[in-house]
Amino acid sequence: MSDKKKFNIIEIIIAVAIIVLITFVVYPKFLDIIRKSNESASRANLLALRTAIAVYYGENEGHFPDENIVEQLLSEDGKYIKYIPELYCPPYHNPTTEITTRPTGDSGKWAYQVEDSQDRQAGELWIDCNQKDSKGVVWNTY
Q1: What are the φ/ψ torsions at residue 96 (nearest 5 degrees)?
Q2: Residue 67 has what pLDDT?
């Protein structure tokens, strides 16, 4: 009778070991899928914000939103966009909905260009992150 119980305990230990092994194999792939979905959502949100700015530009006789009111104008009354969408550059920055007009190069926020410069045109919106996404593309090149 005791041999039977020992055999059952060994079976349970082997089953647990197999489950742990499978978890170690599957879990990183699961995390990668979550990261890629967050990256895709951020790129789609960038397109939505750019579209809102383009509509604003068209309705306001070729004027882009001012730096002090860019967030308010875009989402006010949901005319151009209902709310500023979330930006998430995993794993480098926490999710945010902030728009900065003074990008640092790696703030992890939406960056909005108020005036023409050597690098960017007025009204341009991009992701202020100089890290690479899962495809190896630098965020600020989107």
Answers
A1: -150, 160
A2: 80
